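Re: the 121-residue chain
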Amino acid sequence: MLQGFEDLECYKAAREIRKAASAFCKTLPNDERYRLTDQLVRATRSVTANIAEGYGRHHHQENLQYLRQARGSLYESLEHYHTALDENYLSADEHQTASASIENALRILNGYIRYIKSCRK
């Protein structure tokens, strides 16, 4: 039984992505502090924040809006990892690991979105 948004599998997956992104950003050069670092941190924080805010709305349609925002932020995060790869800030293996985590989170989040849609009917 869910006791809060922290129990949602999509939140747990997104939280791991956020923590990994934060650790990765600490390895980036200082000249990326207000560019890639800021964008990646904001995008990954947006995922968990939107899942939490949607959960708190207690109305299926509003929750779906926030879950869709979270999904968009996951895709944005993936693009920032593509940029990091292109700029040689991470290896192909590191990029693959990050991409796989994001794709897994997307799969889980899409399942939750389908569930919420079914509840509203």
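The mean pLDDT is 96.
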